[in-house]
């Protein structure tokens, strides 16, 4: 994977090289309502003690938006990003190489790929989103089965990672430790979210 920290790059995995690659060479335009890379639904689920406790995480940041949340207490916390900008929507990510996440976090957390066919429960395929020590970084997460796993505490998924790519409803960020998280970008290779 590739990590960019304020202009320095450490390459460890092939990744699409530009933001425009995710949109057929064109730069994305944001939605008319608040969004980050056309993703309008960044939600605190009410699971775990968070600030905000529920609702949208989007706040004005310069000329755009950021999604900010604080996890409190040593318990599982859940933040949801709907890929199609509404719960009923889903995306086929079978041709996607992965996604670029621009964020800061004061502790480790995970991102789960949740399909519409198996939305509920914690037994999902996930990958580590490492702590950045509070610094904004840009990191590529491949959508390949060898980079995703599951946690015994949450349960083993009853479906394959490949099948989860066919009807992806959301990326769900989960963590069990206190954490301050600031999301600035989430570009998915080969997929453009529809504005709602």
How would you sum up this structure, described in words?
It is a single chain. The protein has one domain: Sandwich (Jelly Rolls). The protein has one helix at 161-166, and strands at residues 2-5, 8-11, 42-45, 49-51, 54-56, 58-61, 64-72, 77-82, 98-105, 109-115, 125-129, 137-142, 168-175, 179-188. The chain is mainly beta. The strands form two sheets. Strands 1, 2, 4, 6, 7, 9, 12 and 14 form an eight-stranded antiparallel sheet that branches. It has a six-stranded antiparallel sheet with strand order 5-3-8-13-10-11.
The helicity comes to under 10%
Stretches where pLDDT is under 50 for at least 5 consecutive residues are 1-13, 18-27
Shape: globular
CATH class: Mainly Beta
**Spatial gap, N to C terminus:** 32 Å
Q: From the alpha-carbon coordinates, what is the Rg to the nearest angstrom? A: 15 Å
Strand content: 35-45%
- CATH architecture grouping: Sandwich
